[in-house]
Amino acid sequence: MKRPSGISGETAAAKKVRVEFTAASDVDDGRHVPNKYDDSKSPPEWETKIVPQIKSMIKEAIDASTRELEHGSLYTGDCGLAAVMLLISESKVEMDIKLEDALKLCEASDKIISSRRVTFIEGSSGAQALMAVINHKLEIEANRDLSVFQCLQIAHRASRLDRKECEVLYGRAGYLYSILYLRAALNNPKIGIGKVDKIVKQIVKEGIKGSKNNPEKGFPLYFEWHQKCYLGAAHGLAGIFKILLHFPEEMKKLKADGKLKEGIDHLLSLKFPSGNMPSSYGKYRDVCVHWCHGAAGFVPLCLLAHKVYADEGYLKHAKLFGDVVWIRGLLAEKAHGLCHSAAGNAMAFLSLYRHTGDELWLRRAQYFARYVLKNFGKLAEKTDKPHSLFTGVLGAALFFIGVLKPESSFFI
């Protein structure tokens, strides 16, 4: 197997540690294809052959999704298609996209999304947030402001969720994601002030209560979803902690900022010898390398922690998780969606590239794009929602756009 070629500016001692780590990371989990790519240079014929194929595949994915996808959330519905169209518009990929069409998809989807769903990925706040940003791009300010208002009104529903509903996919942290997305996309950090405080407080209160009820777990902030302590980005601590990191002032007011850092540190201490993370507390099978469960979903948490705390240890963790994804992220039995696939895993490389500027991570993303292209038809059949963003070909399309325009990112 091709070992990591190294990080720019890396010392000989650090490189030795990384090589030893990589050998330990090569776990036969039965789920990935051995990675034999040479990441010291870009794939052969990248510009002349692969890039044109990528552009063609993006168009094919969008056309198929336009025909087949049902109205619904970012996860499996039309809002996911609207998100891809929006990113194409923002990233200047040469493609005939009309934002008016993306807006119509969101409007239709918002009408049928269950009122019980409040999050960015699975709920109506995601549809409203997208509508606000698209209207902003179209310079329709009144409709933009109305969508922002409608998104903020959903805070009441988020606050009334069951107290244990705190994770990203279905819980309070997932609603806060919509606020963060609006703040970033509209360049307005004041959006949601007066709304987020209560929800952050609810999450922290539940985390402290969970910690007191489960002292043996060692977390100052502890959360469960369906009676299980998940650790990853979708349902678990990594996702919740990352959202809370975006609200430093609120955490300080609650005197919970120290608890958050302690929680992150304890979470990272639970990694397997391979460098991968368990899917849940007490889970000893080292098999999942995904965004939802495993190393790929921990990269964004560590990069944000590095930015917030200026602690190089978090950057080291992020790079090591990136190595795990490089070694074990070419999934053989998963489709193309962002949740669990080679394309979804490779989003971690793009995050690392944007954070560090190291071309190694971009080259690794390029090789994963090559793998996805080569296996596109075969892998596309392995899901019941083959045209969606988080479980289907739109996930690959979003990743491909990121590879072509790595400075662009749809997610915060």
CATH topology label of the domain at 93-270? Glycosyltransferase
Structural class: mainly alpha
Unreliable spans: 1-18
* Helix content range: 55-70%
Q: How many β-strands, per DSSP?
A: 0
Tell me what portion of residues adopts beta-strand conformation: under 5%
Largest sheet: none
How many helices does DSSP assign? 18
Binding site for Zn(2+): 292, 339-340
Pfam family, one: LANC_like
Family: Belongs to the LanC-like protein family.
GO molecular function: metal ion binding
Task: Provide a concise account of the structure shown.
With 412 residues, the protein is mainly alpha-helical. It has helices at residues 12-25, 46-68, 78-91, 99-112, 124-137, 141-153, 155-159, 172-185, 196-213, 237-245, 248-253, 257-268, 299-309, 312-328, 342-356, 359-374, 376-380, 393-404.
Structure description:
With 412 residues, this protein is an all-alpha fold. The chain has a domain at 93-270: Glycosyltransferase (Alpha/alpha barrel). Helices cover 56% and strands 0% of the residues. It has helices spanning 12-25, 46-68, 78-91, 99-112, 124-137, 141-153, 155-159, 172-185, 196-213, 237-245, 248-253, 257-268, 299-309, 312-328, 342-356, 359-374, 376-380, 393-404. The protein is globular, with a radius of gyration of 20 Å. It starts with 11 loop residues before the first helix and ends in an 8-residue tail after the last helix. The model is unreliable at 1-18 (pLDDT under 50). One of its GO terms (biological process) is peptide modification. InterPro entries: 6hp_glycosidase-like_sf (IPR012341), LANC-like (IPR007822), LanC-like_prot_euk (IPR020464). Keywords: Metal-binding, Zinc. Residues 28-45 have a biased composition (Basic and acidic residues). Belongs to the LanC-like protein family.
